[in-house]
Design a protein that fits this description.
Distance between the termini: 147 Å
Shape: elongated
Mean pLDDT: 86
Helix content: under 10%
CATH class of the largest domain: Mainly Beta
Radius of gyration: 54 Å
Low-confidence stretches: 1-20, 243-247
CATH architecture of the largest domain: Sandwich
Length: 807
């Protein structure tokens, strides 16, 4: 493309000048345009041979795949000279370059790479001094001879030139004068003591010198030419036209709509560039992406200054407008609402970035609602975008309206391809993705999907947009990364200047993510906008684009006042009652009342119903006050009755007190109280003279009461009766020997023995009796000895004796 541009330029110039003055094809030995390759377009087949994986990159016009990027390590390009095509005198050589290093570097070397012999020609960047250096060796020296100054012509340009800027250098030698031109200007010359260059067929190498001192070049080269004649001044002017094409300084920024005085800036320069920001308010910064806080609204002249250690400076100044203009963006008018109600704040454009002055009473559920408790003025600030200047930014009209360095394909087959599809798997069936649709209308809309190119600097999408000078434009594109293991690196390019977004923002794999920037057009009337992908790894950087927009934008504000009616009804305070009790509710301020729930209310339509709920209940009451239906509520809490625990029964001997107890509350009241030590104690001593039942009322911390009782019995004091005989003849009369009056004993033991001392009967139960048998056999008539031990509340008793069995 550049070659044809030069030919076209030549045709134009030839109409006003003689062919003898400008004939760029005359004497041309080789011409490497680097438009996608290193082939010779002169027709002489002196092709360049790229070495060590050197990559194509953008040229001085920002066009991708149109220059070579040398890594400064081992990248170089070889041109064979097997028959001496490049050893003639006179000769001229032409090269565009952009250095990215402060080292001594060889741009063009013609000599044997493996030894120190055959040093024919050299063009280098001479450091220190940042000048240029060219040498030509005399043909008086054999190719195997040692180099001396007497057979070497050197011309040097010691004035500094700027890094990171494209320059054109031309060297000529006619046998009399050795000259060097930089950016079309003669900068140095030397008259040697010889008239022809050494005749050796060593290769020409772009990017190094020889193996012992390679002096690798780091940076970009473009448009290399070699002539077997000396170029004319007119030809030099044509070939260097557009010289000093700078990677012009430019920047973008992002405003914070909630805090417009906070601005983040991004330089469209490499991250390691020596730069300085002048924010226009007396503050400076050297950061590549500073965040600056301005003292207030207004217009600030922001300057970005690019410089280097040798004093080269590029500067761009743009006016940052932080003023906020009024714009009627809230469609809802000032209004009054009832207490507790909300009002929708309708806006003309919910897609714009906006920020309200308060979030305390704003609710957003797809729409914006305000629910103030008192009169409130809401102010909204809005970063408003207007007409989208991008053609087919949503790709709904297919593969039209833009250009691309990638190859269009309906289905993926290789790196560096793109397609326009509704779903990612449609283009690449093997892709694994859960969220595969486009951004505009998921499932039916179109998007651009691509597999990153392995060639650095290529563009996925480009479009030229007409803009107005001095205007602020918001640039937005939506991206989706579909390969987490090797994510793309989206690059925004503005007029050939790049910003690697991944340096500042982390990708969210498989979800559409907006990338935004604000650009001030300054003096530009066109915006060459491109999007690229700097991940050049083969396969794995699948990248989708959608909804690309460039819109003129600005900051605006609007406001709305919402008043709140203070008329309301008032219900009595929350209360609590004990289980099975009732309470009167009360409300004032209304006319006709409605209580709910109606369960447990004496009348749900009056102001003061009686409530008798069985469980804790919140009663809501509503009534119209003017045009507002107002509400209030009362919570009636049901407190349970205390759980009363007592010792139920107690016994004592005459004249001795008994301990009675109760628990479950904080207050106690016993009755009758006359025979108690303390009728208000939970555990008083009772001293009744007769059997007595004591009642207790237990009250808990909530004031709820429950009853309980304890029975106190007086133990009997009569003697125990022991019969001396019985007749176990089954006549129902005196058939069993038992102890009378022992019931209620705390301890009881009765043992009976025969005349042989055998124990024929034993029991611990005073209710048991002996039926006159032993081991199931009736015992004969006779006397049997017994022992009795017993004790009760009132004392112990022991007795021995005999009982007679009568048959």
């Amino acid at each position: 493309m550049k070659y044809f541009a030069c030919v076209f330029l030549y045709i134009i110039l030839s109409t006003s000048q003689s062919t003898a003055q400008v004939n760029l094809a005359n004497g041309l030995v080789t011409h490497l345009t680097f438009d996608g390759n290193s082939l010779d377009v002169s027709g002489n087949n002196n092709n360049g041979l790229p070495q060590n994986g050197i990559q194509l990159t953008t040229d001085r016009f920002g066009t991708g795949n149109s220059a070579y990027l040398f890594d400064g390590l081992n990248d170089h390009i070889i041109i064979r000279d097997q028959v001496g095509n490049f050893s003639s005198t006179p000769f001229s050589t032409v090269l565009w370059f952009q250095t990215q290093s402060n080292a001594f570097q060889v741009m063009i070397g013609k000599r044997d790479f493996g030894s120190t012999n055959g040093q024919q020609f050299q063009l280098s960047i001479f450091r220190p001094g940042d000048g240029l250096f060219s040498s030509v060796t005399s043909n008086a020296l054999p190719c195997s001879g040692d180099l001396t100054n007497s057979v070497l012509s050197m011309t040097r340009y010691t004035t500094p030139f700027c890094d990171d800027r494209w320059h054109n250098v031309i060297v000529t030698f006619d046998g009399l004068v050795h000259k060097m031109y930089l950016d079309g200007n003669l900068v140095s010359q030397n008259i040697p003591n010889f008239n022809a260059m050494m005749q050796c067929n060593s290769d020409i190498r772009l990017g190094n010198w020889w193996s012992g001192d390679p002096l690798w070049f780091k940076g970009k080269m473009d448009d290399f030419r070699w002539y077997n004649r000396v170029l004319t001044l007119d030809e030099i002017a044509v070939l260097s036209q557009g010289s000093n094409v700078s990677e012009t300084v430019d920047f973008i920024y992002q405003k914070d709509v909630c805090s417009p005085q906070q601005v983040r800036f991004f330089s469209l320069l490499p991250l390691n560039t020596n730069l300085q920001w002048d924010f226009g308010d007396g503050n400076m910064s050297n950061s590549s992406s500073p965040i600056h806080y301005y003292p207030g609204n207004g217009v600030y002249p922001v300057r970005l200054i690019k410089g280097n250690t040798i004093g080269c400076r590029d500067t761009v100044q743009k006016y940052l407008d932080l003023s906020i203009a009024f714009r009627n963006s809230i469609l809802t008018v000032d209004t009054t609402i009832c207490q507790g109600d909300s009002v929708a704040l309708r806006m003309d454009d919910l897609s714009a970035d906006y920020c309200w002055n308060t979030s305390q009473t704003l609710f957003n559920n797809g729409n914006i609602y305000a629910k103030p408790t008192s009169r409130t003025t809401y102010i909204v600030k809005q970063d408003k975008s207007f007409q989208n200047l991008v053609v087919n930014g949503d790709f709904e009209t297919g593969n039209t309206g833009f250009s691309s360095d990638y190859i269009f394909s309906n289905q993926h087959t290789a790196d560096g391809q793109y397609g326009i599809v509704t779903g990612a798997k449609q283009w690449m069936p093997s892709l694994v993705c859960a969220n595969c649709s486009d951004h505009t209308t998921p499932g039916s809309g179109s998007m651009l999907i691509s597999d990153g190119s392995t060639v650095s600097g290529t563009n996925i999408w480009c479009q030229q947009i007409i803009v107005q000078p001095g205007k602020e434009y918001k640039i937005v594109f939506w991206a989706k990364f579909l390969t987490p293991n090797s994510p793309p690196r989206p690059v925004l390019k503005i007029n050939g200047k790049s910003l690697d977004y991944v340096s500042y923002f982390l990708p969210n794999v498989e979800y559409w993510q907006p990338f935004t920037a604000t650009w001030n057009s300054g003096t530009y009337t066109t915006l060459d906008l491109c999007l690229g992908n700097d991940n050049t790894v083969s396969f794995g950087d699948i990248f989708a684009l959608d909804d690309i927009s460039v819109t003129e934008s600005g900051l605006f504000y609007d406001s709305i006042t919402v008043d709140v009616s203070t008329a309301s009804i008032v219900a009595s305070n929350d209360t609590s009652i004990c289980k099975n009790e009732a309470v009167q509710l009360n409300a004032t301020g209304g006319t006709v009342y409605t209580w709910s729930p109606a369960t447990g209310l004496s009348d749900p339509t009056i102001a003061n119903p009686i409530a008798n709920p069985t469980v804790t209940t919140r009663y809501s009451v509503s009534a119209n006050v003017g045009s507002c239906l107002t509400k209030d509520s009362i919570l009636v809490t049901i407190n349970p009755l205390p759980v009363v625990l007592t010792n139920n029964e107690a016994s004592t001997c005459p004249g001795f007190p008994a301990q009675i107890t109760a628990s479950g509350g904080v207050k106690y009241q016993w009755s009758p109280s006359q025979t108690l030590s303390d009728a208000l104690s939970p555990n008083p001593l009772a001293s009744p003279t007769v059997n007595t039942t004591y009642a207790v009322v237990v009250t808990d911390i909530n004031g709820c009461s429950e009853d309980g009782e304890v029975k106190v019995s007086i133990a009997p004091t009569g003697k125990i009766y022991i019969p001396n005989a019985f007749t176990p003849n089954s006549d129902g009369i005196n058939d069993c020997f038992t102890i009378k009056g022992a019931q209620g004993s705390l301890m009881f033991e009765l043992a009976i023995y025969n005349r042989f001392g055998e124990k024929v009967f034993f029991t611990n139960n005073p209710s048991n009796c002996w039926d006159g048998s032993f081991k199931g056999k009736p015992q004969p008539t006779g006397s049997f000895a017994y022992t009795l031990k017993t004790s009760g509340p009132c004392g112990a008793f022991t007795e021995k004796g005999t009982v007679t069995v009568i048959r």
